[in-house]
Specification:
The chain is an alpha+beta fold and 110 residues long. The chain has one domain. It is 37% helix and 27% strand. It has two helices and seven strands, in the order E-E-E-E-E-E-E-H-H. Strand 5 and strand 6 form a beta hairpin. The protein is globular, with a radius of gyration of 16 Å.
């Protein structure tokens, strides 16, 4: 197994309001080095994304001790770094969809 490192330059955290709620939630974004992927950590979930699209399962971390959270975070980083046929097809589909959306936007703009 390859040990992966994440790009942890200034902590990328922002507050967001939950819909229909008065509470706030912290979101941490960790860019996975040399990939188009980002790991999102919220107060209750960790998952991998590419742009606005989620590419991994959501892993619940609410009530889990810090060491286990780090282990789950590293597992998600390893998951998005792993090059499989499934990941290749997934990325190609996302790129095609993004291209179609941009093409549709350009044609409507004319």
């Amino acid at each position: 197994m390859v040990t992966s490192t994440s790009k942890n330059t200034p902590l990328n955290v922002e507050k967001t309001n939950k819909p229909n709620s008065n509470s706030e939630e912290l979101i941490e974004r960790i860019e996975v080095k040399d990939t188009p992927f980002t790991v999102i950590i919220t107060e209750g979930m960790i998952f991998g994304v590419m742009g606005i699209y989620r590419v991994t399962e959501k892993y619940g971390i609410e009530g889990i001790i810090e060491e286990d959270r780090e282990e789950i975070k590293e597992m998600v980083i390893d998951e998005v770094r792993e090059i499989t046929w499934n990941r290749i097809v997934q990325v190609m589909m996302l790129l095609m969809e993004k291209g179609m959306v941009e093409q549709d936007f350009k044609s409507k703009k004319k």
